[in-house]
Write a structure and sequence with these properties.
540 residues; Lipocalin; 6-stranded mixed β-sheet; single chain; 2 domains; 2 helices
Length: 540
């Protein structure tokens, strides 16, 4: 039998982890289950958006009422608005949907079998379902949003109240409810969200009044003393002891996105997201950008770097740190350079405009500060891999075009990478107006001298993270798959869709801390401490 990835322990685990932020809860106590609709959030922040393509962020989880074990997890294209248990059958009706921001109200009516985990989307056309309830064994009453807000007045405050009947709701086929059946009375409907109520209900169910969901683990680092350092949604940074207990945690309204541990492992820089707009009096304001220096002993904030706008980190393995502006209104701001032991930028270099899809290029284990820089004529398309030499008078050296086919023949997006033995292994995607097409995601190994391709691996989903060593490159994808490639030739050693407790998880960040230890931060806020030697040496 082929070996599975060995997960030694799961840090940050808690009840209902699989669904992220709860949106709606249905407690079927007499059936022994709790059904929760939730939101894992965006795989995008102000410095990077390359992992967002084809991402399905919404979930429906079915849990055992007794031990809160997760029985099933089902993905949803739209937010979950409502849930209702069938009076007698092991079926729950799930109403999903949202406004697309410009015209349509789209969603689904899903019938989920509680015993098998199978689901069927029964509407023939996408329509937002606002409310569901069972009128009888054979009659389902629901409120349906109008198709759009162009032909319907009060479209955002009203819906159609209707009833449809079936003799056996356990056997209703996919897309079998036709448009002609969807008629009803035009009624006023309150669309207020109920997230706080859902959080409180889950806290009561698991006996934790202060229960809160954990969400995206954006970056993590293994320390030499065995602790694990991470930053995640809603947490500036946290540290876990070798015994699996939380050492310290620094909460934050938005949270850290990138970590750089400084030499000696006494402190670290944290790139903290500051994107959320809040109302102060009559004005809407955004918190000033923050790059914080924290003590690794206790998480105390020791200071901060002076930055005039939101930034993205690029690092060199000797400790140099580059801060590139991500603010569209301040694109001419030069990239600040902080020396290894520095407390403030001591030099800068112009790198032209940045955007979170085209220019995101976090390269680990590099002896150079590597960036993507666009040409003046088409900065989003004509991109080069460049190196910045920070010593003395900082300079920018063009290395090679990002596209290895005839220069700039394609529009490529950036992605994560590592430097290895004079080469660069990096991920990315090929842009297409129709979205990410199958086979248009890639991992490629190239010479750092001239960009010559050593090997290429293609995929259908974008990479969320990449790390590796001289033997193996580990690549995480937003489909939930982890792939191990032989570093020298790109051969697939192993690939596996990750699971915790038999349920799928999505890897968002990676850190290889030794030849056999891989840390995986997940989109649902957990950290997997894994042994990989047996997995990569197993038969494919």
């Amino acid at each position: 039998m082929s070996a599975s990835l060995t997960v030694r322990r799961v840090l940050g685990d808690r009840p209902f982890a699989e669904i992220g932020m709860p949106l709606v809860v249905a407690d079927g106590e007499e059936r022994g289950v709790v059904v929760v609709g939730g939101d894992l959030g965006y795989l995008q922040w102000s410095g990077g958006g390359t992992a967002q393509d084809r991402w399905q962020r919404y979930r429906v989880g079915v849990y055992d009422s007794g031990d809160l074990r997760c029985r099933w997890v089902v993905g949803s294209r739209w937010p979950v608005n409502c849930l209702a248990f069938h009076p007698t059958l092991p079926v729950v009706a799930v109403g999903t949907g949202s406004y697309d921001g410009g015209y349509f109200f789209e969603g689904e009516l899903v019938l989920l079998d509680l015993e098998s985990g199978r689901s069927a989307s029964v509407l023939a056309e996408p329509r937002e379902v606002l409310q569901v309830e069972w009128a009888s064994d054979q009659a389902l009453r629901f409120v349906l949003a109008p198709p759009d807000d162009y032909d319907f007045d009060e479209a955002h405050s009203h819906g159609f109240d209707m009833v449809i009947e079936r003799s056996d709701w356990g056997a209703v086929a996919q897309s079998s409810v036709q448009h002609e059946e969807l008629t009803g009375e035009w009624i006023e409907f309150d669309r207020s969200a109920h997230e706080q109520e859902a959080v409180a209900r889950l806290g009561a169910l698991c006996g934790e009044p202060w229960w809160e969901p954990r969400r995206q683990v954006w970056d993590l680092h293994g320390l030499t003393d065995g602790r694990v350092l991470a930053c995640l949604e809603g947490v500036l940074a946290e540290a876990w002891r070798p015994d699996g207990q939380l050492d310290w945690c620094v909460p934050d309204d938005e949270g850290g996105r990138q970590l750089v541990v400084r030499d000696g492992e006494l402190d670290a820089w944290v790139n903290v997201e500051r994107r959320r707009v809040r109302r102060v009096g009559r004005e809407w304001v955004t918190e000033p950008p923050l790059v914080a220096r924290i003590s690794l002993a206790d998480g105390k904030v020791l200071g901060s770097l002076p930055v005039g706008s939101r930034v993205v980190f690029t690092t060199r393995d000797d400790g140099w740190l580059a801060l590139r502006s991500t603010d569209l209104e301040r694109q001419q701001e030069p990239t600040a350079l902080v020396p290894p032991a520095g407390e403030a930028p001591e030099a800068s270099v112009p790198l032209r405009r940045f955007d979170l899809f085209n220019h995101f290029f976090p390269v680990r284990r590099s002896g150079q500060l590597l960036f993507l820089r666009g040409e003046k004529s088409e900065p989003w398309r004509k991109k080069w891999v460049v190196a910045v030499d920070p010593d003395e008078a900082p300079t920018v050296r063009k290395l090679f075009p990002l596209d290895w086919e005839p220069p700039h023949a394609r529009h490529l997006f950036g992605g994560p990478g590592i430097a290895q033995d004079g080469d660069l292994v990096h991920a990315g995607t090929v842009h297409d107006g129709a979205g990410l097409l199958p086979g248009n995601a890639f991992v490629v190994r190239r010479s750092l001298e001239d960009g010559a391709v050593r090997w290429q691996f293609t995929a259908d989903f974008p990479a969320t993270a990449l790390d590796g060593n001289a033997d193996t490159v580990y690549v995480a994808f937003n489909s939930g798959e982890l792939v191990a490639l032989r570093t020298c030739d790109g051969t697939v050693l192993r690939r596996q869709h990750l699971e915790v407790g038999g349920q799928p998880v999505v890897p968002l960040s990676l850190a290889l801390t030794g030849p056999d230890r891989l840390l995986i931060g997940t989109a649902d806020g957990r950290i997997l401490d894994c042994l990989v030697a047996q997995w990569t040496n197993g038969r494919n």
